[in-house]
Amino acid sequence: MERTLIRELNTCVGTQVLIRGWVSVRRDQGKMVFCDVRDRSGMVQGIVLPISPAIEIAKEVTVESAVEVVGTINKRPEKNITADKQNGDIELSVESLTILNKAQTLPFDLDADLNLDTLLDNRPLMLHTERERDIFALQATVMQAYRNALIKREFTEFQAPALVGGDAEGGAAAFKVSYYNEMTAFLATSPQFYKELMVNAFERAFTIAKIFRGEKHATPRHLSELTQMDFEMGFIRDYHDVTRVLEEVVREVVVTAGEKHGGIFARFDTTLPLAPDPFPMLTLTEAQAIIRAEFKREIEDTSDMSPEDERQICEWARREKQSDFIFITGYPTKKRAFYTYEEPGKAPFSTGFDLLFRGLEINSGSQRMHDYDEMVARMQERDLDHEKFSFYLQGHKYGFPPHGGCSTGLERFTMKMLDLKNIREATAFPRDMNRIDMRLSS
Ligand code: AMO
Question: What kind of architecture, by CATH, is found in domain 123-439?
Answer without folding.
Answer: 2-Layer Sandwich (3.30)
